[in-house]
């Protein structure tokens, strides 16, 4: 009987059964399990790894059921003969290394082959380990404890347990789930004043994907696009990647300034709450923008990214709800409220444009996962989404109020420029402070903030702005976190 060099981590997020199964499967893939000898007994392996004997037995039995191992009575568990073949995994580690060296010698020159370089476009810099900070004032992430897991599980259980036909298991070619489209038409879009037909709606993998599809279809060298600055950098990246030239528009308290945008073909705007400032476009600016569209033969790409979570019952309707609807491409998201990981958004536009977007999407990935679309549609239709949204907005309101109070107390030298219902705080510090240095001082105290310079598109962006999100941090930690940020602010002032 062989001793295997395996290990599991009892402190890992993955359960021990999953860890042991993955470790054994990797050993099979690499060809490091014995082909003729029995594997260690359940008792011996459990002692070696310091885990339950039942855990080992369950993993062994599931691998037998799946055809990776065979069980011989009174003898033990053995590698299945199908995995004894050399093709199943090279049993000689030295030969694998030699093959790898040969691959390196004959590796292609990718530098000369790559036609485009997306890595040249800077993204929004956020640490991958943001959740490890004690006080993550980061935007675009949510506190996962708020996710309606019980209701989501209930919908999933009924979908999987039903004996009825399961059309969501089939490839829908280029079509979306009809129930999800219906729920968007009847329950989601009307809240923003939008009434659309089914053929005017396309489901996407989030608003970023929607923006990419739109830009690919409409932009080319010579296309002129107006964007807000400071603004959403990934939008600028997408338009630049498609060859468009950009006209960066300044912002004031009324939103995007329009004076130099008349010569543009498209205007990308976030009128509800602008990114990153959180400023809401005024009624007068909206009217001026809508009047300009027909006069200048322009199209607006409206990004209503946080429409579901700002909870403002007095909010102005979407631009798409206006009489100029045919000149407005509307993008919305269901991920911002539920979970960024769902990556579920939608586009509302004239049917002719949606037809072309659908065909372009088909060439890329056909459609977003049908099972996820249908589960989300059921989640909305059974009232779970609306109930969750009410509770979520109430919680976000409490956190926003806690943030505002803490900022007033601990950061009196800073000015907030965001509107009262914004989902983040856009802060302006003392002119002598470089907020990238402030972010470094804050990180030493376990506080994560976002320096604002990366949202400007100028050659020499201002360094006095920063953004504070509050969706990923629980309310009780907001006050202490902002207090620590205030200490970091004082340290930055002294350097």
Element layout with pairings:
Layout: H1 16-30, H2 42-49, H3 53-65, E1 69-72, E2 76-79, H4 93-105, H5 110-113, E3 135-136, H6 149-161, H7 178-188, E4 201-204, H8 206-218, E5 224-228, H9 233-241, E6 245-249, E7 251-252, E8 255-256, E9 266-269, H10 283-296, E10 299-303, E11 328-333, H11 335-338, E12 345-348, H12 351-365, H13 370-381, H14 384-410, E13 415-416, E14 424-428, H15 435-443, E15 447-448, E16 450-451, E17 465-469, H16 475-493
Parallel strand pairs: 3-15, 5-6, 5-9, 9-10, 10-11
Antiparallel strand pairs: 1-2, 4-12, 7-8, 11-12, 13-14, 14-17, 16-17
Helix pairs in contact: 1-3, 2-3, 7-13, 8-9, 14-16, 15-16
What does this 3D model show about the protein?
The chain starts with 15 loop residues before the first helix and ends with a helix. Helices cover 40% and strands 13% of the residues. The chain is globular and about 85 Å long. The protein has a 7-stranded mixed sheet. Strands 13-14-17-16 form a 4-stranded antiparallel sheet, covered by helices on one side. A two-stranded antiparallel ribbon has the order 1-2. The longest helix has 27 residues, at 384-410. Helix 10 (283-296) links the parallel strand 9 and strand 10 (299-303). The relative contact order is 0.11. With 495 residues, it is of the alpha/beta class. It has helices at residues 16-30, 42-49, 53-65, 93-105, 110-113, 149-161, 178-188, 206-218, 233-241, 283-296, 335-338, 351-365, 370-381, 384-410, 435-443, 475-493; strands at 69-72, 76-79, 135-136, 201-204, 224-228, 245-249, 251-252, 255-256, 266-269, 299-303, 328-333, 345-348, 415-416, 424-428, 447-448, 450-451, 465-469.
């Amino acid at each position: 009987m062989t001793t295997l060099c395996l290990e599991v981590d009892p402190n890992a997020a993955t359960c021990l059964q999953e860890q042991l199964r993955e470790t054994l499967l990797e050993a099979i893939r690499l060809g490091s399990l014995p082909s003729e000898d029995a594997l260690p007994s359940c008792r011996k392996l459990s002692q070696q790894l310091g885990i339950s004997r039942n855990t080992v037995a369950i993993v062994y039995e599931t691998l037998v059921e799946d055809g990776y191992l065979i069980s011989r009575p009174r003898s033990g568990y053995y590698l299945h003969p199908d995995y004894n073949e050399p093709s199943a995994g090279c049993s000689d580690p030295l030969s694998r290394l030699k093959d790898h060296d040969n691959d390196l010698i004959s590796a292609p020159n990718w530098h000369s082959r790559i036609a485009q370089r997306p890595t040249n476009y800077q993204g929004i810099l956020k640490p991958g380990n943001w959740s490890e900070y004690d006080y993550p004032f980061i935007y675009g992430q949510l506190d996962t404890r708020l996710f309606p897991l019980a209701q989501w599980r209930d919908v999933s259980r009924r979908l999987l347990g039903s004996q009825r036909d399961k059309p969501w298991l089939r490839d829908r070619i280029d079509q979306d789930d009809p129930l999800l489209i219906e729920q968007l038409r009847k329950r989601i879009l009307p809240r923003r004043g939008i009434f659309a037909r089914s053929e005017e709606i396309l489901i996407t993998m989030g608003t970023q994907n929607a923006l990419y599809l739109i830009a690919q279809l409409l932009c080319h060298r010579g296309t002129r696009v107006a964007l807000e600055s400071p603004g959403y950098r990934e939008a600028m990246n997408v338009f630049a990647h498609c060859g468009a030239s950009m006209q960066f528009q300044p912002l004031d308290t009324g939103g995007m300034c329009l004076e130099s945008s008349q010569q543009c073909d498209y205007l990308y705007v976030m009128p509800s709450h602008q990114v990153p400032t959180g400023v809401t476009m005024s009624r007068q600016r909206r009217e001026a923008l809508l009047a300009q569209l027909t006069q200048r033969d322009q199209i607006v790409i409206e990004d209503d990214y946080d429409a579901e979570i700002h909870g403002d019952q007095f909010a102005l309707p979407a631009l798409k709800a206006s009489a100029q609807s045919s000149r407005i491409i509307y993008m919305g998201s269901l991920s911002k409220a539920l979970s960024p990981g769902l990556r579920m958004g939608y586009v509302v536009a004239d049917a002719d444009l949606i037809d072309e977007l659908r065909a372009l999407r088909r060439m890329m990935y056909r459609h977003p996962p049908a099972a996820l679309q249908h589960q989300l549609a059921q989640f909305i239709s059974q009232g779970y989404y609306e109930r969750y949204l009410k509770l979520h907005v109430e919680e976000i309101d409490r956190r926003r109020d806690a943030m505002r109070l803490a900022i007033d107390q601990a950061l009196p030298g800073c000015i907030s420029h965001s509107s009262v219902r914004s989902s983040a705080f856009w802060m302006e510090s003392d002119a002598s402070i470089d907020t990238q240095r402030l972010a470094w001082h804050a990180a030493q105290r376990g506080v994560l903030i976002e320096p604002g310079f990366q949202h400007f598109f100028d050659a020499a962006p201002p360094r006095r702005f920063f953004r504070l999100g509050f969706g990923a941090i629980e309310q009780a930690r907001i006050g202490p976190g902002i207090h620590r940020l205030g200490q970091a602010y004082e340290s930055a002032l002294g350097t």
